[in-house]
Design brief:
The protein has five helices and three strands; from the N terminus they run ααββαααβ. By secondary structure, it is α+β, with helices and mostly antiparallel strands. The longest helix is centred in the N-terminal third of the chain and has 46 residues, at about 5-50.
Length: about 180
């Protein structure tokens, strides 16, 4: 029993001596946290103002490049408008899942996203080629291939590849589904 009071007095001594050390550690931890927050906020503000996107360095631009006559403005105001070209609505016979299944149909409306009007002028005369490439591929699809989002994503990627092959050297940026109805 004599040992218990000695331990209690030893713990009290540590608490009395440890208080300044714990306050010092707490102050250091708070200072580090504040510096991290300030640094993160400053970096975020720098990126939001458009200085840290890396586009200037990648284009060979940057500081010391003259009076700004050659600089390309970056921002939402200078973004070129994209052009959308509608593909004629297609009604397709889908391949049956098994030979005894009855016929299933798909009605699809698609738009092609192009980067500008120049490409649209190149694409318009070639639309029969695009429709043929789409029809030939989509006739081999089964209803299960296009009834879920994964299937539609794969279909979009494959159609983009086939359309770009049909329209070469013109390039389509995206294939967009307007309607997909499976019956």
């Amino acid at each position: 029993m004599a040992k218990k009071p000695k331990k209690a007095s030893a713990e009290e001594g540590e608490a009395a001596d440890g208080t300044p050390k714990s306050k010092k550690k707490l102050m250091i931890m708070v200072a580090v946290a504040v510096l991290v927050l300030i640094g993160g906020g400053g970096a975020g503000a720098y990126m939001m103002m458009g200085h840290g996107d890396g586009k200037e360095a990648a284009q060979g631009g940057g500081h010391g490049g003259g009076h700004g006559g050659d600089s390309k403005a970056v921002g939402p105001d200078t973004k070129k408008p994209v052009v959308f070209v509608d593909v004629r609505e297609m009604l397709l016979n889908l391949s049956p899942e098994s030979p005894q299944d009855k016929a299933r149909f798909a009605k699809v409306r698609i738009a092609l996203e192009l980067k500008d009007a120049k490409v649209e002028e190149e694409v318009k005369p070639l639309m029969p080629r695009v429709e043929d490439a789409l029809q030939v591929y989509m006739r081999e699809l089964r209803a299960s291939d296009i009834t879920n989002s994964v299937g539609l994503f794969r279909l979009r990627e494959e159609l983009l590849r086939r359309v770009n092959i049909a329209l070469y050297p013109a390039k389509v940026d995206a294939v967009l589904f307007k309607d997909v109805i499976v019956q």
